[in-house]
Write a structure and sequence with these properties.
Elements: H1 11-41, H2 44-75, H3 84-115, H4 124-149
Helix pairs in contact: 1-2, 1-4, 2-3, 3-4
């Protein structure tokens, strides 16, 4: 209902926020799959691919999503809002950024190890990074649910 009365000047920032979130979730799915392949097969190219996806797709998508989330909050004058859906989104975003950085560092270290030719089969860092990516994916799905259903609004 609110989208009907939204000013046209909000369309681009909202599109970039939603587009960034879509690329973020999609790239997390791809990275999670590549991490699983790397862990099971010890596939060094899959490890490097997962690191590249996280660094070149997931991180920029997160930054775009987060910047334009803040733009939309300021445009809608929700800066002091106590809306549950807004709190869920910002909590997931803030904690997700920390987890994303940890996943980036761990995947980068494992990719460096794979580049040197060392085996990465069953590597603990790949398991931990896969778990972190899975937690991130679940948290972002919860945030998407909160943004679409607006609980407590």
């Amino acid at each position: 209902m609110l989208a009907i009365v939204r000013p046209d000047s909000w369309n681009l920032p909202l599109f970039l926020h939603i587009g960034g979130a879509m690329v973020l979730v999609g790239s997390l799915v791809v990275a999670l799959f590549a991490l699983g392949v790397a862990r099971v097969r010890g596939d060094q190219p899959a490890t490097r691919f997962a690191a590249r996806v996280l660094f070149l797709a997931t991180l920029p998508a997160f930054i775009v999503m987060r910047i334009f989330a803040q733009v939309m909050v300021s445009k809608e004058h929700l800066d002091n809002s106590k809306a549950d859906w807004l709190g869920i989104g910002f909590t997931v975003s803030d904690l997700g950024f920390v987890l994303l950085l940890v996943a980036l560092i761990m995947t980068g270290l494992t990719a460096r190890k794979a580049k040197r030719g060392e085996s990465v089969t069953g590597a603990t860092t790949l398991r931990v990074t896969g778990v972190i990516a899975g937690i991130l994916l679940a948290a972002f799905v919860v945030a998407i649910w909160a943004m679409t259903t607006k609980p407590g609004a």
